[in-house]
């Protein structure tokens, strides 16, 4: 606060004169002020002991700074001579009459260097000289004083007073307030204070400040009419007010694992204690006008309401925002894998979490089987499940940030069912019977020959029994070479039963006999084609050999084979290829290759059946080959005219 600084304390130097005498005393204002470049009058009255009779009149001296002449203080005024300090030449004048004990001093055109203490010394002649210890302290002002309260609170009436000294008789000041246009309903009042011949002019401004006025400038101007002297002082209003606004980021969405910065600014004076709150937890605080909260590696646990609170003792305010954490769906939770009986009703549950809420889709073996649900829980109901319901069920959770899935297996158990691919087929070696069935658990397959009262299963090594399991499908196969009786169409009669069973049931059926026309055609075409190829090779060899005989002109020349074994092996390989046939049977997506070879040794349990037993084996017994490009061996002798160009190879 800037005080008026204009109160004047007068030390009365009067002392009662008793029977002896009065003492040395002086009366003058303790504090007095003036504007720079103006003037000031220091009122002064002095007394001396009544017993002293001045010789040659009364003289007076004004000192500046200190009262001790022996220290040679600057002389402000001296009545005996005009010898004064250089800074006071032409500036000082004694207005009082020393003989009337009036020592009033006038100082013109004062400057800041003239601020200080002024002492008066009375010279009554001879040894009667005395410097009064009391002083008047002059303050030279370059600006007017403004009285500002220690605390200015918003919405409370405020008074500001501007002071200007009026201690120069020839110059009367005037006061004006500046920059008051923005104030709400300002009021002005002027007052004049005078104490002990020291005068002060004041002007008081009254208004009700608002928070918006904080930091605004106000000014007081003092000027002397008819002069160029103008003095101004500016102040900045420090308006105390409670938080009136709390600004934070807008509510936002961030990705899981990312970072985010939350800002908070509070408009208050003085600055507030700002706190970031998450629920009841204080995350960070500081006394400032703003604060920032840094959140790293965001997780779904960070999602929620964040509140910024500002409190400065004059009031409290808060503002909140919502921070949403987006993340891809978590791995769904589904039922455990199940094994159920055909006809059972199931409810499959799938739950997950994600932001935004994921869509849930049920898939079976890659195909959509359930409705798409935009929720964190989906239930797939399967009523009266059939074997076709067996498989892998996958719950797929998706949102714009990713996908996740979980699977379970549903195993449906049911009684065995015979497949239409089950039959007996005539093949080159006899009859091949295939029995196929599906079921869960996988069915066991047995063959029954009622004519022979024989049951053939995997424990029986006869009839080339073969079994194979693919998933829930079982396949059994046997080969028969037994000759059955002819039926009306001339084919063999086959009486083979297939028996299938598992935990939930058993079934036995008679297998139908079918002719394998395609296979027979393949055998015929293959045989004819093979014979044609060999015939072509023999003709080519004969033709080339005949030409060589003509060119050489010596049919008896002995020849040396380049590599007889090579030619022989090629012919043998062609023969073997003709003797190997491949029967491919494709049953329910699985391929069974049955390689049927004619054997040169024993055929095991195979027996001729029907017309197949009448097929004769055809073999290539002789081949006549002419070796072209044979070279004569040096020193070789002839072996006769009938064997020079051909070699007979016999293969059985």
TrEMBL record:
It is found in: Membrane. GO terms for molecular function: carbohydrate binding; sialic acid binding. InterPro entries: Ig-like_dom, Ig-like_dom_sf, Ig-like_fold, Ig_I-set, Ig_sub, Ig_sub2, SIGLEC. It comes from the Eukaryota. Coiled coil: none annotated. Pfam families: I-set (PF07679), Ig_3 (PF13927). Keywords: Cell adhesion, Disulfide bond, Immunoglobulin domain, Lectin, Membrane, Transmembrane, Transmembrane helix. This is Myelin associated glycoprotein. The lineage of its organism: Eukaryota, Metazoa, Chordata, Craniata, Vertebrata.
